[in-house]
Amino acid sequence: MTLEQRKIELIRWITTLKDGILLDRMDDLRKAGSAEVPDAILRLLELSSAAAPGALVKHTSAKELLKRK
Fold it and tell me: Where are the alpha helices (DSSP H) in the chain?
């Protein structure tokens, strides 16, 4: 599914919503933008940067981690 198709599907879904609380949460997300990083992620990044290089796990793909191909 292309990005444009995903946007259209999201718009269709939003137009059927009847839950004001969910819309409020979506509006909060829109206002926060992608620049805001959750505190839990920031703590993980701080832990990672403080760890010794030998103690770090090599990056791999999610498929490899889940043993899927």
Answer: 3-15, 20-32, 39-50, 62-65
Q: What angle do CA 18, 23, 27 make, to 5 degrees?
A: 165
Q: How confident is the model at residue 30 (pLDDT cuts 50, 70, 90)?
A: confident
38: its two tokens: 């959750």
pTM: 0.40
The amino acid at residue 24 is D
* Sign of torsion over alpha carbons 50, 52, 53, 55: negative
- If one counts every other C-beta atom within 10 angstroms of the C-beta of residue 49, the result is 8
